[in-house]
Amino acid sequence: MAGSADFDLYRPAEEHDMLRESVRSLAEAKILPFAAAVDEESRFPQEALDALVSSDLHAVHVPETYGGAGADALATVIVIEEVARVCASSSLIPAVNKLGSLPVILSGSEELKAKYLGPLAKGDAMFSYALSEPDAGSDAAGMKTRAVRDGDFWVLNGVKRWITNAGVSEYYTVMAVTDPSMRSKGISAFVVEKSDEGVSFGAPEKKLGIKGSPTREVYLDNVRIPADRMIGAEGTGFATAMKTLDHTRITIAAQALGIAQGALDYAKGYVQERKQFGKPIGDFQGVQFMLADMAMKIEAARQLTYSAAAKSERVDGDLTFFGAAAKCFASDVAMEVTTDAVQLLGGYGYTRDYPVERMMRDAKITQIYEGTNQVQRIVMARNLP
Ligand SMILES: Cc1cc2nc3c(=O)[nH]c(=O)nc-3n(C[C@H](O)[C@H](O)[C@H](O)COP(=O)(O)OP(=O)(O)OC[C@H]3O[C@@H](n4cnc5c(N)ncnc54)[C@H](O)[C@@H]3O)c2cc1C
């Protein structure tokens, strides 16, 4: 198998290895030192944003035509993975910039792309994705946010819930009902700007993990926007939202993978230092077997995630299955591996003095957002390869 064309698709090329090395050293030098404080103080990781923007890593997926780095899906995955390895909250900067802007890239007009992707690529603006509502989570098509046409404008009213980086981002892709009689085919997508009159934000949610990533409600109160802010044709917003998730669930898999790798790396070092019964605990086979299982699961998740990224880049027919499978598998692995890392540190692992406790809390969200893992299984079952 090794050396066959198919196998090579899943293997990062040399340029991807170089990218990994440079993101890792940036993340360890400029993001890791603040990760514990960002979590403890539940504050936005401004140091991470500054470091990512100065190295052009904050939105690597933006095509070169619009001033971006033009990174492929695998390169984007590697950036997110390496940032998440040291700080999951910070990894939501490149991940959500892709999630928020991908609807514009996939379905937007040239004018929308030119207007909104340039500032994103430059680091002048971040992009969020507003699909979920208080009463429409897994059943996102049950949303109530309404957009009504008024001449050359649309007027939006409603509440979006759980919006990552809300309040920090300048731009929001907002899904809203334009024809209530059509359910998902009556939903359209729009770009809403933070500065549009009638846009406001709720208080940050008090979360279990990813505490450095602000999650807020977005209130739309008679927000009047020009008609050309619609992304794609009327009624195609839900399809665009789902197409987006096919690609971006792979970035959540990358985040999960990075968190798991960070926990394994920390535990590997710890078991060599910690002595019980007169020797390092890493000398005990019971501990070695746990580390072996953790590494095996991470590698399996990595292969599935990279393979899904290759499919995202080519927009293969089985992308929907692979995107859901990668997200579901990698996030379950992240939860298992981080829980095992806490176990390997014993009582110390259970405290905030060591990073594995934070990693275990951060891992949990990867099983929930961009569709819970039950929803991923529904998606997979409907799109079996
Ligand atoms: C920190 C955070 C950040 C987020 N960021 C964003 C964002 O940026 N943009 C955005 O739009 N959304 C975002 N979300 C929303 C997220 O995608 C939803 O929370 C998620 O889709 C689940 O919806 P819900 O919370 O309403 O749960 P519910 O849909 O109420 O689900 C509750 C439980 O029921 C299960 N369930 C529901 N339906 C089924 C079914 N048919 N079969 C089996 N089980 C089922 C679920 O799996 C879950 O276990 C975020 C959420 C969080 C917590």
TrEMBL record:
Acyl-CoA oxidase/dehydrogenase middle domain mapped to chain residues: 129-223
Keyword Oxidoreductase: yes
Acyl-CoA dehydrogenase/oxidase C-terminal domain mapped to chain residues: 235-384
Protein family per UniProt: Belongs to the acyl-CoA dehydrogenase family.
InterPro entries, A to Z: Acyl-CoA_DH_CS, Acyl-CoA_Oxase/DH_mid-dom, Acyl-CoA_Oxase/DH_mid-dom_sf, AcylCo_DH-like_C, AcylCo_DH/oxidase_C, AcylCoA_DH/ox_N, AcylCoA_DH/ox_N_sf, AcylCoA_DH/oxidase_NM_dom_sf
GO molecular function terms attached to this record: acyl-CoA dehydrogenase activity; flavin adenine dinucleotide binding
Required cofactor(s): FAD
Keyword Oxidoreductase found: yes
SUPFAM superfamilies documented for this protein: Acyl-CoA dehydrogenase C-terminal domain-like, Acyl-CoA dehydrogenase NM domain-like
Domain Acyl-CoA dehydrogenase/oxidase N-terminal span(s) in chain numbering: 14-124
Catalyzed chemical reaction(s): a 2,3-saturated acyl-CoA + A = a 2,3-dehydroacyl-CoA + AH2
Keyword line: FAD, Flavoprotein, Oxidoreductase
Sections of the chain in a coiled coil: none
Protein name: Probable acyl-CoA dehydrogenase fadE25
Cleaved signal peptide residues: none
Organism domain of life: Bacteria
